[in-house]
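Appendix B. Raw example, untouched.
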Amino acid sequence: MMSEETSQTTSHDIILPFHFWDDVPYTRGICLNVTLRFEEVLDTRKLHDSLERLLEIGEWRKLGARLRQSESGKLEYHLPSKFTSDRPGFIFTTASHAEPISSHPLASQMPSTQETSQISVLGCMSSFNSITRNKDTPNGIEKYLSSDIPQLFIHVVTFTDTTLITVTFVHTLFDGMGLSYFLQAWTAVLSGNEDQVPPFLGFDEDIIEAKTENVPAEHHVLAKKTFTKFQMAVLVLMRWWENYWYPETQDKVIAIPSILVKKMREKALLELKTQSSQHSPEDIFISEGDVLLAWLSKSIVTALNPVPSTPILISNVFDTRAVLNISQKGAYTGNATIPACTSFTAQSLTRNPTSNIALRLRHSLDEQRIPPQVFAMSSLRKKTLRETGYLPIVGDPRQISITCTNWQRARFFELDFAAARTDETLTGPVRPSYINTAGPTPMGPNVVRNLVTVTGRDGVGNWWVQILARASAWGRIEEGIRELGGDI
């Protein structure tokens, strides 16, 4: 049962300060529901008991801490000295359906891995919340701050042939890689391989701050493009205008066959090599992720149909763990991402080849994903927060912003829950056939727009992408995606 009592602190709680990058406006404002679909029935007791055991291993118990807000307004963790039935380390709920998933009117619409050579645009991510979440699962940070509840909510739904596992959390707890570390540790315990559970990093020390050198904010390549207070006011007005005229947003899933993405990249590389006068051979590297983002950005902006001079800013979120030499030492589950930003105009983005856009995105990533720039961005964040109360925003207040978070490096589709299967006659791994990520519903006009989440590449090679955009633009977005796919 979930505790409905108000926020409390016992004399035995361990009080831990928040890490700087975990307590910023956007992490407080996002509550995520990440659902893993499996094409087998999994044992809910084994899932529960292995998760309970994980929170007993070393400092992994920090995941069971409660969220509190100090008198100064800062977030802090209050960790029970011992988890009990009254104060558990997580909330675990289940639902069972005595039918195959194909018989359920809503769940049957959830995508899954399939061999295909065609691009598919599928249903809304958030439409599944009514079956993937328990009715008492929090929708935002306010519930966590006002009740004595843990941060992790796990809801497992079983059908006669399928299992859905949903993890609900506030972004203050995890970023994409942080969630992946948690799930990998959980499956290690589930499989009886506790020796493979990595050390938990950042229990009572801000690991990122400890690794960050003092580089002035002015040294960041984007420092001079940061919004002034006046520009921020203009941006607020522009967003109000967008929300007034286009109040509805919609989120959809796109499945892109691996062969198409490979062809896109091969075509882009060939185009760049033919422009040898513009690019030296050593500069010509673009990943499949670069090409995907360039291609999808062109589709979104073309669908929005702005005037040619409209500024466009693409924010390509990257993980700093490897840059700061953190990932080699254990599992840092907190937030460790910052965006690499690239500016265009609507005309330059939509009329230039995908190859050129992808290369510009790659150059921005290479330029901004190095230690001195990460250090300078940390300084810039602190300076801007101190002076304005918000994180630095760069570019032009009239711009259309596209934000991409790519979870391929988190390898969610490679997770193996075989140790929880109920049919012992089956063998082999039990990996997710689909990953659904959604915020709370209903989605109001103030949600982030033009958000691209690449959840990764599944077992047969399909790339899965989820896009949140203006509802009235979706017809043109789909048309553009299919047209670009047909040109490959």
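End of appendix B.
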